[in-house]
Amino acid sequence: MKNKLKSQLQTEVDASYLYKTLGKHTEDQNLAGIYFKMSEIEEGHAQKVLERILPDNPGVIIPGPSARAKLQVKLAGILGFGFIQSGLLNTEKNIADSVIKAKATRGEKITGSEYNHVKILDNLSQSKNGASGGLIAKLEGRHKSVGGNALRAAVLGANDGLVSNLSLIMGVAGATIGNKGIIIAGFAGLLAGAISMALGEWLSVQSSRELYLRQIQTEMDELENSPEEEALELSLIYQSKGIEKSKAEEMSREVLKNKDTALDTLVREELGIDINELGGSAWEAAFTSFILFTLGAIIPLLPFLFISGGPSVLVSLSVSAAGLFIIGSAITLYTGRGILFSGIRQVIFGLLAAAVTFGIGKLIGISIAG
Questions:
Q1: Environment class of 56 (CB within 10 Å of its CB; exposed 0-12, middle 13-18, buried 19+)
Q2: Which H or E run includes 63?
Q3: Are 291 and 153 members of one domain?
Q4: Are residues 299 and 188 part of one domain?
Q5: Which residues, including other chains, have CB under 8 Å from residue 226's CB and lie 6 or more apart?
């Protein structure tokens, strides 16, 4: 219980630190004020957790931000501060789930307010490109369109490359003797997997872009042929966000006065599409996927280029285990789980897959030899 409370204390401190960071890097003062207020609330939560700890541990004080939180801020300077928002959303969900479990254990009533922070963050993330004044979050930092999803894709792409090629290499190593066949299979698996991943990513992004373009064209036609219906639909959308009917109707009429901005607003509000992005570049996504898969797949293959025989298998497993642990640790940046737990879990799953394919390879090798 003591360790759990200390972990909760650190989580609250980190959340406060990250909210404050978002507030400092948000140009819109209204939105910055929301982030600063959320930071204050998390500070209050941390103080309450500390009060529960002190009776049994008088020397405990409020800690500073963790290394993980500081790393998130550094990465946000590269990936864009939307990355922090994505991580915070997962953190708030974990906190809410923990609060609900604790209330259920104590027999306390669950009100639904436990997810208030999740709802606020979710609304902010959805409204950051919206038309409503004062809610346009212009976050500083390069590559603003790259956030938590980009890091998640990067980590999982490298993981796919490492685990799939490690499994392939161990399967061949179990079936054959000598490095030549292993190296050929390893490079073949690397190239085949990387090309397949890149093609799949290109098709996914390009298909999304084409779908968006078709939806935008449909919206253009409706705006031209049925402006009254579009005004009504837009008014209803505003009303669903809690805006009074008269105000919503006034806003929709104002938007439709200017056809240059009307389409952008309609597409964003009705379809949830940002005309300026349309899902990103298909070629960029494909290239990134190819590189990340390759980086992961080369790890288990490298030892066989320099070492022969049984030691090469052991070294390959060792460096792959290290790579899997790093990937598992990186995943904690947006899951909020412990580094040791996630890292060791990743190692276990990856090595189990390699053990299975090695065993199958051994059986096939014996069968062919026999």
A1: exposed
A2: none
A3: yes
A4: yes
A5: none
Assigned token pair, 318: 């060792």
Q: Are residues 72 and 215 in the same domain?
A: no
The more confident residue out of 225 and 362 is 362
pLDDT single digits (tens) 234-244: 777 777 666 78
Place 163 in a pLDDT band, splitting at 50, 70 and 90: very high
CA distance 118 to 94: 10
276 assigned to some structural domain: no
* CATH number of the domain residue 112 falls in: 1.20.1260.10
Please state the rounded mean pLDDT for residues 264-272: 64
Rounded CA separation 293/298 (Å):
9
Q: How far apart are CA 231 and CA 160, in angstroms?
A: 47
Which of 29-43, 48-62, 168-182, 346-360: highest mean pLDDT?
346-360
Q: What is the DSSP letter of 115?
A: G
Q: Are 86 and 147 in contact (CB under 8 A)?
A: yes
- State whether 98 and 240 are in the same domain: no
Distance CA(26)–CA(167), nearest Å, equals 45
Q: Is the pLDDT of residue 147 over 60?
A: no
pLDDT classification of 129: cutoffs 50, 70, 90: very low
Give the Å distances, CA to CA, from 235 to 89, 177, 252: 29, 71, 5
Does 346 lie in the same domain as 320? Answer: yes
